[in-house]
Design goal:
heterodimer, A: 399 residues, alpha/beta, GMP Synthetase, Chain A, domain 3, 8-stranded mixed beta sheet, 4-stranded mixed beta sheet, 15 helices, elongated, B: 366 residues, mainly alpha, Amino acid/polyamine transporter I, globular
Chain lengths: 399, 366
Amino acid sequence: MIRLSKNRHTYIWFLFLFVVLCTIPLTGCWDKVEMDDRAFVIGMGVDKFEYEKYIEENKEEEETENIKNDRFRVTYTMPNLGMIAGKAGNEEPKFVKTSTDTTLFSTSAIMDARLNKEVYFGHTKIIVFGEDLVKDPHLFRQALDAMERDPQISRRVPLLVAQGQASHVLNTTPDVEPLMGIYIMKVLETAERTVARVIRKDLGEFLEELRVGGRGLLPRITTGKKDVKVGGAAVFKDYTMQGWLGEKEVRSVLFIQGNVKKTQVPVQYEDMYIPYTVTEVKSDLEFSYDGNRLSAKIKIKMEGDILEYELERKPELFKNSTLKKLSSILSAEIEKEVLQTMTKLQKEFKTDAIGMERELRKYQYDIWKQVKDDWDQVFEDMNVSVDVTANIRRIGVSR
Amino acid sequence: MFSMNDKASARQVTILLILDLFGTAALTLPRRAAEFASEDAWMVVIGGVVLALIYGFLITSVATLFPQDSFVEFSGKIVTKPIGMALSLLLMAKLMAGVALEVRVFGEILKQTLLPKTPIEVIIISMLLITAYLIRKGYECRARIAEILVVIVFLPLIFVFLLALFNADFTNLLPMFKTPAPKILEGAYYLGFTFGGLEVMLLATMFLVKPKRAPRVTTTAIIVVGFFNVAVTLITLATFGSMETNKQIWPTMQMMQSVNFPGLFIERQDVLMMSFWILSVFAIVNAGLFFISFIATRMLKSSEHYYLVLPFVPILYFISLIPDNIAQTYEWLDFMNRYFGIIFLFPVPLILLMIAKMRKLGDTVE
């Protein structure tokens, strides 16, 4: 300090200059984007774009040379933030924008040019693929890669396949919840929790599944007038959609995977139908290999309630013998259902879409090593036996 | 003055070493381990830790023989001045390449995830300048900063790991013990280099108040970091399975991204984690830069080191910008580890130790 005081003026001038110089780099921020300038993409739909079809449908359009090579047609839904905050009046609750380009990634750049905002995928809630797209392995793989590579898109975004065009799904305005993305996400969650007719799959999980031979399952979504329905699943092999699994078949798949939280199975009993509410499922897969044929034993144990019968019907439900009888009918029925689904996967789709190979590798590595090279054929020829035990635990509050 | 004290307690050096060893490597570790042994990746990591313990033992055995000297002096004493100088220069060059590439990787990750529009040059130069600022204050000051940083870096990490456990499916670790032993050993050898930061103990032992405690310090640091590395690998593998882990550049980051905070009120927590991780990179870069300037000081026999810090900043800056892209950066890092990683971890300390024992140099008698 003694030395400093000698040329105090120089010191102060240096300090001043230093502070001024510091403020120049510190105030700037290249990456600042105001909330208002961001378009939060809630739902994203990816379709295959075919120029010839487009020309046929829109004959009066001009400037078509521009889009001749386009391959992706992407639909974005964004919430009208002003409307949600309650500031704006009778405006639309959401915006739906569609754009086409040769690559998936560049469509968002085109969107930037059409909106007064910058599109942002950090809060994307769902991604829907069109049926045409998932039947084209190259485009589908390109789309998935773009999504995986982009750090903005979370790995937890649920994926769906639309029956038809993805843009139709996103263009629907559901009456219960105007924001399509959030709506579908909630529908998926409830459907998974209560009916078990849909497999929820997020981007990360699906990519993990696809790593083995491009096989996997994605939930199906269909549109109504004012709502959508999720149920069933698209079956993939070699990154290409092979066909659909129905809702009941998806339920069987969930039984095999032991991944059911709650579901209803109505079964015929003499001249009536009774609903069986499944509350817990445990499954066990066991493989054996005799040198040329693989056998799989699927053991499924479930617990549940019966909450509907017939008034004054005899024998009454409040009797162990009745319940035992019902239980065996139920077991046989579900066994049949599961076996049918397995046959469909094996013979019709010839696809191990439910990850049996992974189970085999995990628990019976030695068998897997013998059959891994020709898994598709081995799976097709696999001998499947199903053993279902459906226990009835409760019958409601009346006899 | 306080900051010119330049002695640190055993606890402080342990913390510095922990921060130094746990860095960018942890982000790629599960992938590299899975490349060698798929589901058995965690065994590879454990193997790496065991090797690191051996390296640490050798390095501190040599360093404690000369409690008052750094590598620059004691290598001169053991194998004549010129060779000692050459070794010191080599160590300096290696540290420089290491820091430069580390800073580059850091810049790339940051640009990719947090600051897409900020020029990478700005990210790198600001990181280097801020570390230079700290280093000028000396070793003791670094130690005190580290004591603050370690809390900020590790507590949130532990928190995220605990949350990630809910998301992990540990059957993904099956089948176990199916990788042939040579493959695991090979992997362990390469992953041992993630502990390359141990080299600084050749220089840092003299900063300890009681240099005799260096072996204990090193062992503690390696075990703590090793524990975290194994935990990261296990959780990442369990979350993704080995196939998927293999396909990610930074699987640990992706693992953190797939963590679901209860209540879902925070999204993109990977970005939150990044900010803690930046601090740990800061610790690594400042260790590197400090020891580079420290070697230079010792070689020039200068009494003060702070004026030798800034000249290295532009040099490191330019080296870090040489690789063309992220893939080349990693290829270079790999190349460096493959051919130079082992030098100061195993052969040099071993040879120095043997010669020192033979010539009965230093505090050999105890």
